[in-house]
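Lab meeting, action items carried over

1. Structure of the two-component assembly. Owner: GW. Status: complete.
Input record:
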Amino acid sequence: MSTQTPDTDETDPQAERMARKEERAAERDEASSKPDVGDDAITLKVFRYDPEVADKQEPRFDTFHVPREPGITVLDALIYARDTYDSSLTFRHSCRQAVCGSDALFINGSQRLGCQTQVADLNDSDTVRVEPLPHREVVKDLVVDMDHFYDQMDAVEPYFSPTEEPDGEQLQSRENREKIKMSTRCIWCGACMSSCNVAAGDNQYLGPAAINKAYRFYFDEREDDERQEERLQIIEQEHGVWRCQTQFSCTTVCPKDIPLTEHIQELKREAVKSNLKFW
Amino acid sequence: MYEHDVIVVGGGGAGLRAAIGAHEAGADVAIVTKLHPVRSHTGAAEGGINAALREGDDWELHAYDTVKGGDYITDAPAAETLAQDAPDNVVQLENWGMPFSREEDGRMSQRPFGGLSFPRTTYAGAETGHHLLHTLYEQVVKRGITVYDEWYVTRVAVSDEDDPNDRECYGCVAWDIQTGEIAGFRGREGTILATGGDGQVFDHTTNAVANTADGIAMAYRAGVPIEDMEFVQFHPTTLPSTGVLISEGTRGEGGILYNSEGERLMFEYGYATNDGELASRDVVSRGELTEINEGRGVDDEYVHLDMRHLGEERIMDRLENILHLAEDFEGVDGLENPMPVKPGHHYEMGGVETNEHGQTCIDGLYAVGEVACVSVHGSNRLGGNALPELLVFGARAGKHAAGEDLGEPEIPVGKTADAEGIEESDVDFPVEPGALAASSAAVSGDSPEEIVETAREAETERIERLLEKEEGVNHAEVRSKIQKSMTANVNVFREESAIEDALETIREAREEYQDVYVADTSRTFNTDLQHTIETRNVIDAAETIAMGALAREEFRGAHWRKEHQERRDDEWLKHTMISWNDGTPELWYRPALLEGENQTYEPKERHY
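Predicted assembly:
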């Protein structure tokens, strides 16, 4: 991470330039802070932080007023605020339709996808408070570091890998496909991990998303028994399924309605059954 | 400088498949992508993958449907390669664990799709792209392929010989969004562009905000001809308020389109009296918009897509995702009510000119997936043909870049002296297209490393300039101007004066872009800077679409012209090519290839 900050060196032209730009931006904000947003505008309060920008090094909330269009989502409101008031407002987003999993945010106190959350559906639709996902390191504004999440996913060997390479199309029963269907819907948004108290206290805990990924392969009948045994060993490790305290927070926040807690419980039962077998 | 044998730019379906292909051929391959791979827009594909897998179907039927769907300027060798390679690629995905929908006997399910003579669209619910993307990414993880995620590639590193056909590509330059580092990436054997489409040219699109024509613009400015850009697909069923896609699978399973009078419009008004809702996408989109324009639209804006009669069980089994999308993004319960839909931008048939190995005219530079134009879709892509395209040509390009011999290509690339049938265009544009001053992305240097380094320096300078500028125009204004003009003027129905308006607006946008600045001063995750760079790409792509659209004086596939209501095979069985030519674009044509392996695809009147 760059350590260049505007106030470390008064004569640094870069620093001066940044300071001037910020000043100008502030003037502009002042001037443009009141476009016609209507009488019942949404008050959008957004968490701001940037390790490089002097007045954003201390986290703060900025307030933007956004017109209340029918059907407006939290993502729409953020885009409006960025394109209208402050182009440095930073958040991840891409597909706008709840499949890329980029915009999991902490909205009015719970983990949700910005694109999938209509302002009108919130408990408080007048003031919308948007923060980065809790329990993640903040990179800037609403952007969090996802590396740890990806590492946990990788830890469960998240790929189909039967002991023997298949020869031609494999058959799979409709029942088996149905069994794993919900688990394959995960979009890696990280909402579940962020909501999980256990994950917050145990950095090594695989967490609901990764365990769900393991579930997806464990129950896929196209993989063989030998592979299943290996998969059980991974999820049964010290920081695996047994850490789950069935608080259901992951299941509650999952934007794809995956019964995560149930999946974890089912794998616990599989682990017990398997251990009994070897007694 | 980072070095690998093969650099793949983009981590969607095409990029991941190319990387796996290169890896399997023994190369050290790395993916450099502005999004983490699972965020890519392949994940939003819903309907399925066309492949002639079953008894009663064969690749020749698939190839024929593809050429006909493209209104006879699909190149036969491209369509045939697609059709021949698709079945193995689908089985390969199955072998990698993709959770396809299944029949009672356990085999992969296939369903009918628009313009197909056999129900060959292999699917996984109505979220096929999501499963395909994740399955491919899983295999990338399994192989330990290096991924530089949230690294934005802004330029390809290409040598600057006068004739683009003599140039070579040695890698690219990328900018680490998270830290601001700008680095050269040396691709020793090849650099494969897999950056996806250009949806951000339009303002009502099914595409992601990340689809900003990056690869098209980078290859174009480095000297690669851009092909058939005027052929833009408008999907008939997008949600009116957001542009979110409602899969063609909904009609494939039996969904019906109604106008405001409750009439089954496709039959009632003769748009497609045989196939009705399952006509090709261009036909259905025009049908719907005609209804709306003639006053039979619901709320004067959209038509209804009704799937209620399919019953909850079938819908939950095959189209569940559609219920969620309609509910979440339009507030409609598809089990209780018909869904509002209207045409929206969906796909760019054109793109970077390549042959069937994914090669461009610049040695070492490849393009695959939506960014490329092989041309496998001609003037209209069939639903279910984008996913096999990215698999088939992704795999081929990856292998070829890694040194595998795929034989002599049949499709020519580049404007070479010996190329057959090349014609120059004499069309007059209302304003001079292209750069405001001479410009080229090609650079000189004595060694590949020096060329990558020089390109890196040039990009560093460009980025510094944007960051240092203290005031000016916000890129969002410029981008929005392009999107509004293109949507108003170069949409489903096109006429000369409107396309000219668009070209004038694009020119203005270019001038305004001279004055853009980045308000965000930070080096950390500066999306303001990223979007500003993207907007330049959007401008270049929009211009090629409008140029091609103005020049093509006929009605073919997705390209409808008010003044030219006929398909004119005597003159227009040819591809539109635009070369950047150091900032002074040059428009020329290359004949379409209709000679297949066992047959000639004689243009016929297209009925559905």
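2. GW to write a short summary for the group page. Key points so far: The longest strand of chain A covers residues 42-48. Residues 147-277 of chain A form a domain with the Fumarate Reductase Iron-sulfur Protein; Chain B, domain 2 fold (CATH 1.10.1060.10).
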